[in-house]
Amino acid sequence: MDIPRIFTISESAHRIHNPFTPEKYATLGHALRMKPGTRILDLGSGSGEMLCTWARDYGISGVGIDMSQLFSKQAKLRAEELGVTDRVDFIHNDAAGFVADEKYHVAACVGATWIAGGVAGTIKLLEKSLKHGGMILIGEPYWLQQPTTEEIARACGATCIADFLTLNGLVTFFDQLDYDVVEMVLADQEGWDRYEAAKWLTMRHWLAENPDDEFAEEVRTALTISPKRHVTYTREGGICINGTMI
Ligand code: SAH
Known about the structure:
Rossmann fold; methyltransferase activity; methyltransferase
């Protein structure tokens, strides 16, 4: 079981697999008032940077589940590196339908809400693992400007306009689902550059090291089109991610 190979190649050197920076994750942990004893479940935990750094900085404990073999392994290594293996654990698995036996104070899904078919489905799923009075943390992209055509939406990396809401639409949607939005930390252009541009150098290195790999053509194409797509569409007016706590 694994995720598509293009991600494990292009994001193999990423610690954070979304447009959040280490500073943004620290701000978010502070904003959510994380403290020793807080237990967090993280679906689609990637390379574990959120849980590992919050365990180090705020004394939380938690479990992350991720379908990427490589990212799950990297998360375990990061926990060792930061000396927090007694507090965080990472499981390589499909998180779809996952419900914890022992409930958590915080149930999170940052940049992976497709795991339960979108924002509403993910909230429903996370709620099942949440203690009474707990918090759900959702990281979801939103349109800075809603594309005027489906073609532009696809050029931004979405499958269609309906993939994402605007920030206003997203906050309204949480309200319609009958949740309070109680905090919000937004990614910015710098974070998008770190997320997207860091893939280019990783892909360039990978191509130099694996010229005869059957996947080389796909990586070559991705490297050719990604920088232009980023500066034309996603950087200025396309999608942006937020860390919303509801
Ligand atoms: N939250 C992480 C990673 C976000 S990227 C971070 O902030 O860095 C999305 C992640 O979802 C990837 O790590 C990918 O491997 C994982 N993923 C995709 N489908 C999944 C599934 N069905 N179950 C669990 N993880 C999944």
